[in-house]
Write a structure and sequence with these properties.
The structure is a single chain. This protein has five helices and two strands, in the order E-H-H-E-H-H-H. Strands 1-2 form a two-stranded parallel ribbon. The longest helix has 29 residues. The protein is globular, with a radius of gyration of 16 Å.
């Protein structure tokens, strides 16, 4: 089982169009990236602990953290593209996707990562 998470990096257009008053664009990008990576590592670690506590063999778990730059229109697209790339490049029989916290109503209007992945990988 591969625990895979996409840490989204700050989109370049935000660094140019909306720089923080207190930070240079490079500093802001670095802080955002570190936070995103730390959150991803924490999520993977907690998921691993939950699976092991439920009786899943720790040796059967593999962890993989990827990064993707958010696209100007949607960070969901960046995450979906990174997951699709992983699926197409890997040897997976089954893929399970988690939710990031969007409400069902919000997901139905905007379309979720899972919907984009299923649509693109249907005939993998």
């Amino acid at each position: 089982v591969t625990l895979f998470h996409v840490a989204e990096l700050l989109p370049e257009h935000l660094l140019i169009d909306h720089p923080e008053d207190s930070a240079a664009p490079g500093d802001l990008e670095s802080v955002w990236g570190e936070r995103s990576m730390t959150r991803g590592q924490t999520l993977i670690r907690e998921t691993r602990q939950n699976l092991v506590a439920a009786g899943f063999p720790a040796g059967a778990l593999r962890e993989k953290l990827s990064t993707a730059s958010c696209l100007p229109k949607s960070p969901k697209v960046a995450a979906a593209l990174a997951i699709i790339e992983e699926i197409r490049g890997g040897d997976y029989d089954v893929v399970c996707l988690g939710r990031r916290g969007a409400s069902q109503l919000e997901s139905s209007f905007l379309g979720g990562v899972a919907e984009k992945v299923v649509r693109e990988c249907r005939n993998k």
